[in-house]
Each structure stands twice: as structure tokens, then as C-alpha cells.
Structure prediction request, 209 residues.
Amino acid sequence: IIQAELKDLRIIIHAPFINLSLAGHREVNNASVDILQKVYDIGVRLNAEVFTIHAGSGSFFQSEAETAELLVASLGRLKTVDSLACTLENMPVSKRATSASLVDSLVKLDKVLNLLPKLGITLDIGHVIQNKEGDWQSWLKNNKEKIYNIHLHGAELGGKAHFSLDNGDLDCSDFIKLVVSEGYSKFVTQEVVGSEEILHSWQFLQSIM
Prediction:
């Protein structure tokens, strides 16, 4: 039934991420991969084009080397096909004392991609703004071929995010001009919270295009 209802649409999937981790306790990692695999396989049957995953969080007592080893092992277990791109999303820096997001910068995202070159990117530009990352424009230009999806939302430097597109410290108009000038032609996902804010952001996007 779902296949029939969606047959005329292009489909992208955000994988489950709440309470999942790919580089924490090994039992949790394995269970997380099993859950992701089930959803990924459904995506294949639905002819989805992009499958976005979060790496999750690691424990504060793990070394960076151990975390990298566990993450690569987990991602290496995921069985993928060329028709459905598997992408990793960059996350904001965690403010929790006991755990930290595993891929909370473009630098860390690069490290994972160097180890797993078949992995694609879901670029969350709002998280980049939250992290106050410098010269992300050059990073985008250098990695545009690996980017399959862009999460777009308003965000504050060092603060919160997922606001309407005309709020926060991201100049949405300049960002759209940049990705268009770079020939980006894949997906852009509006990740704005609130039904009124989503509608307002869509109208704002139409006004600047």
C-alpha cells in the first residue's frame, strides 16, 4: 500500500536516531545497526534515494581512537546498495557532561569519510552555524560531490536552531546563491520546527528564489 501511495514521489529517509548509537557500548552499537538495516532495506523497496543517519553519542571515557574504531566497525556492517545513498549528518556540539556527539564538526565528518569513502554527506548547515565553524563555504565547495542532502533551518551562532529560515545567523539568501552557483542539484530539506514556521519559511524561500 505504501509503495503504491508513494510511487510518484521522490523519497528520502531520515533513519531512526533516538537512543541509538554507533560507537558506544558494543551491544548498543550492534542493535542500532540492526535497526538501521531494517529501515534501510525498506527504503530500498520504496526506491528511496537518500538515507540519512546520525552517528549517535559516545561515552566521555572513550578515547578518540576507540570511538573511531567502533564507528567504522558499525558503519561497515551496514549493507548498502548503489541505488540508495547512505549519508552521515554533522551534528551540533553536545553540552552534556557524560556523552558527546560523535560527529559534531565538519572536521570529524571528514575523518569518518576518509575511512569510509562510500559514505555520503547530509550537510546540516544549521548545525554548522551553531558550532561557529569557520570557512564552511570552502568546505562545501570541496565536498559538494559527496553531499546528497542539505538540512536547512535558521540557527544562532553558538546557540539554538531549527528556527524559520529568516531568523538566526544564517543568511539564507546568500546560502542558496552559493549552492546554486556551485551547481548543487540534489536534495534540500527544510528542517524548521512548527507548522506555522514551516509555511512561513516556504513563503520566504519562494520570495528569495
DSSP finds eight helices and ten strands in the chain. The chain has a mean pLDDT of 92.
